[in-house]
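job 3f2a | input accepted
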Amino acid sequence: MIESRKLKKRNQYLKKLIGFQDTELVKVITGIRRCGKSSLLKLMIQHLKESGIQPEQIVEMNFESHDFRNMTSDEVYHYVKERVIPDKRMYLFFDELQRISAWENAVNAFRVDFNCDIYVTGSNAYLLSSEYSTYLSGRCVEIKMLPLSFQEFLYFHDFEVRETSSVLGGIRRQVFDKNGERYDLREMFDIYMRFGGMPGIADIGLDQEKALLLLDGIYSTVVVRDILEREKRRGQRQITDSLLLRKIVLFLADNIGNSVSISSIGNTLTNEGLLEDGKRKGAPSTHTVQTYIGALLESYFFYEIKRFDIKGKGYLRTLGKYYIVDIGLRNYLLGFRNRDSGHAIENVVYFELLRRGYDVAIGKVGTSEVDFIAAAADDKKYIQVTESMQSEDVRKRELAPLQNIRDNYEKIVLSLEPGLDSSYDGIKSLNLIDWLLAEF
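job 3f2a | predicted structure (440 res):
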C-alpha cells in the first residue's frame, strides 16, 4: 500500500474534489488504469484528516483487493452500515467499484440511509454509461483523470525548472535534478515523449526495461480486466478475440492523428496480412471493429475526436481521429523509436487541452484543416501543431488554415522550433514546451 507521506500531489484534481466536498453529489473519478485514481482518493483522505475528520468517519474499500472483490452489492452495503457512526458524517471511498455487480443499488442506498459523502473511482466508462446514468442522473459529478502532464512528469521525477541568465543577458530555463545536475529542457521533453506520463514510472525510475514491464502490465490489465472480463460481467460476449483486439490497438496506435474510418480498419488489417484471411474469411465486419474500438474508448485507452465545420458551425459525420491516452503506451506497443514525431506531439497537445478543461474538435475550414478547436465556456482557441516553423513552406502550410478563419478568437501555432517571429498577422507562434509549462 502507498504511504500517504510518499504521495505526490495532483493539485489540479485534488482541488476539484475538495471543491465538491460535503455536497450531495457522488464524486466519480474516471480514467485509464494506473493513472493515479487510487492515489487521488488517498490524497483526499489525507486532506480530510488534516481538516479534522476522524479516521473512524472514513470507510475505504478497494475492490481490486482480495478482501472485497467477490462481494455482492448487499454485502458492500452491510460492510459500510456496520461502520457508520450515528450522528457523525461519514466519508465513503470506493475504488474500482465497477467490479461489483449492481453497485449502483448500494450507492443509492448510502445516499438515502446515511449522512455521508461518497467518492468512487472506475477504470471504465461503462460505470457511467446510459444503463446506470438514470440511477445517478443529476446526482454525480465526473472528474476525468489523465496520466501526468509534462509539468507533472518533471515534478514526479524530482526535476525542477529554474530560470538562469544567459551570457547576453537573456533568460533561459533549465532543469535540475535533486543532486543539482543540470539538463536541457528539450532533453527532458524528449524523455517525456519516450517514457510517457504513467505515474508508476516515477517509482521505478527512467529505466527503459522496467518501464516496458510496467506498461505491459497496464496494457494487459486494461485488455483482460476492463475489456474481456467486463464482457463476461455484462453477459455479452461480443469481444472474444484478444488477437483481433491487439491488432486494432496496434493499428490505432500507429495512426494517431490520422483520419480513419471504422470500415477501412478491418480492410487494412486484412490487406496488410495482419489478420489471416483463411480462418476469418475476409475482413472483420464494420460492426465488429466498431464494437472493439468502442471497448477501447470505454477503457480510456484511446480518445476519439470529431470534426467541426467552422464556417457551417456544426459537427461533421466524416472521418474522425484517435489519440492514445499515453505516449509511453504507444512506444511500448510500437517500439521506442522516433516514429511520426509530428503526430506524437499533436497527441500531447490534445491531452493537455483536455486537462485545461477544453472541449476539443478538429476544425474544417473550406478544404483545409485546423488541428484543434479548443472551446470552453467563455473561451475559444484555434491551434496548429508542428515540429518547426523555421521553413517558409511549413509556415505557409500551418498559417493558411488559421488565416482563413474570419472570427477574432485566439489563433496559435505551437512548435518545438518557433523561429524568431512571435506572431504572423496576429497569429501567435509559441514554443510548445513553454506552453506546456505555463500556468492555467
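job 3f2a | The first strand starts at residue 26 and ends at 30.
job 3f2a | closed
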